[in-house]
Amino acid sequence: MAMGRQVDRQGDLMVTWTDLPRSPGHVFYDRLQQVLLDGGFDGFVEATCQPYYAGTMGAKSIPPGRYFRMHLVGYFEGIDAERGLEWRCSDSLSLRDFLRLEMGKRVPDHSWLSKTRGRLPFEVHSEVFGWVLALLAEAGLVKGERIGVDASTMEANAALRNIVRRDTGEDYQEMLRRMAEESGVETPTAEDLIRLDRKRKGKKLSNQDWVSKSDPEARIAKMKDGTTHLAYKPEHAVDLDTGAVVAAALHPADEGDTTTLSKTLAATKENLDAVDAAPTPDDPAECVADKGYHSRAVLKDLDAGPWKTRISAPKQKGFSRWHGDDAARRAVTNNRARLLSDVAKQAFKLRAEIVERSFAHILDRGGMRRTWLRGRENVHKRYLLHVAGHNLSLLMRQIIGAGTPKEAVAAGYCAIFVFLAAQGTYLVAMLAPKGRLGGILAISTIFPSGN
Question: Which of 12, 145, 172, 196 lies 20 to 30 angstroms, CA to CA, from 39?
Fold first, then answer.
């Protein structure tokens, strides 16, 4: 075979459709596309977004279904920034097909994603999340009998060095310089400021005293790795029987667990009600949480309601004093009694595994541990779509045995072994290491010619 040489490219005046190079496609995105089309996804999102577009004036926009698909790709590919999302979709023919792009059309750029998200309200993104949840309910992946609740932290797109005091408006360096001048140092150097900051008493960063100029809704908080950043607090309510996230709230990072639990459970009940799985006082669902959510006020509010609490109780020194509050005493006693059963021990094991897994998939593998957006509602919009992608991965795992594109490709790997048997025959075996096809796929015997 002769070696081909690269020559200068000459553009063709006309290329037919059959002459264009075609991609074999990606089995994961092809099956996910079929799931969305069978459920009427494009018609649903267009009808939901219609009130926020002009009736007849102006040029037609890019279809809303493409906007939501690009965010789903962000979860499945683990892409955090929207520029990276644009580049990834532009480089892949399979993703172009998944976005339903016509030949010759370019992938929407990152600025279009930002503008569209800013113009579509939070309620639209919440309805898309609810549509995916209804899809899971039809497949039997939403039970609504045991709900595990937990929270994590998400780093905001703001730096601590840009925070300013709420009362005076001065930043941290200006405050140190003022304190140095008040102590007698007329022209403090950088070393003087560092020395002063290290030695001064009562040094702390309080959200009551400091605020970020770039993202005022971000709060100073300690992350899961022990570092301190401006952050948000995502909180999940997860179906412990299936792993589906039935509610994903985004709270200020400085609000405690006992403060945010009621808001998350209200969203959970609303979402479960939309799929006919809402708990009632006559048929309550279990609410499983760790000791950070334990308080008399929380247990008292949830007692005799649609939630049967199984909230871990912290170790107590001495006796409890109720001061005549019989309702709180009854709620705490009932919750303590529920913690002693084997059902509670199993539920806490599931909560520690399944709820933490949802955070690992969405925040760490999904690329949302550090957001590049600003504003809590703006961040919450994209976070809901990432959670919707996580729920779709559960459905895809049920359909094809793989919840992500990488897992689907890995499940297709196989090995072929050839063994020399008696009388010159060959034994050929093909094995797959994992997935639904894991195990021996085929065994055949090859006889030499003439036998």
Answer: 145
Alpha carbon distance 239, 147 (integer Å): 5
- Indicate the CATH number for domain 142-156+221-374: 3.30.420
Residue-level pLDDT at 218:
96
pLDDT score of 151: 96
Query: Please, which residues have CB within 8 angstroms of residue 191's CB and are 6 or more apart in sequence?
Result: none
* Spatial contact of 362 and 238, defined as CB atoms under 8 Å apart: no
pTM to 2 decimal places: 0.84
Distance (Å, whole) CA 259 – CA 166: 24
Q: Is residue 185 packed enough to be buried (19+ CB in 10 Å), middle (13-18) or exposed (0-12)?
A: middle
- Tell me how far the alpha carbon of residue 181 is from its chain's centroid: 48
Whether the predicted pLDDT of 85 surpasses 60: yes
Which single residue is written with the structure tokens 């960063």?
205
Answer for the pair 288, 149: CB distance below 8 angstroms, yes or no. Answer: yes
The rounded distance, in Å, linking the Cα atoms of 356 and 150 is: 8
Q: What are the DSSP calls for 172-184, one per residue?
A: HHHHHHHHHHHTT
Tell me: pLDDT of 13 over 60.
Answer: no
Closest CA to 143 of 277, 301, 262: 277
3-state helix, strand, coil in the chain (%, to 5): 45, 15, 40
CA distance 148 to 17: 52
Strand bridging mode 245-252 / 228-239: antiparallel
pLDDT the model gives residue 441: 44
Q: What are the residue boundaries of the structural domains of the chain, listed by start? A: 142-156+221-374, 160-213, 412-446
CB atoms within 10 A of CB 295: 19
Average pLDDT for residues 79-94, to the nearest whole number?
90
CA distance 260 to 318: 29
Q: How far apart are CA 285 and CA 300, in angstroms?
A: 16
For the ranges 293-307, 337-351, 397-411, the lowest mean pLDDT is seen at 397-411
Beta carbons of 248 and 268 less than 8 angstroms apart: no
Q: Which of 44, 52, 63 is nearest to 119 (CA)?
A: 52
- Measure the CA dihedral 43/46/50/53, to 10°: -150
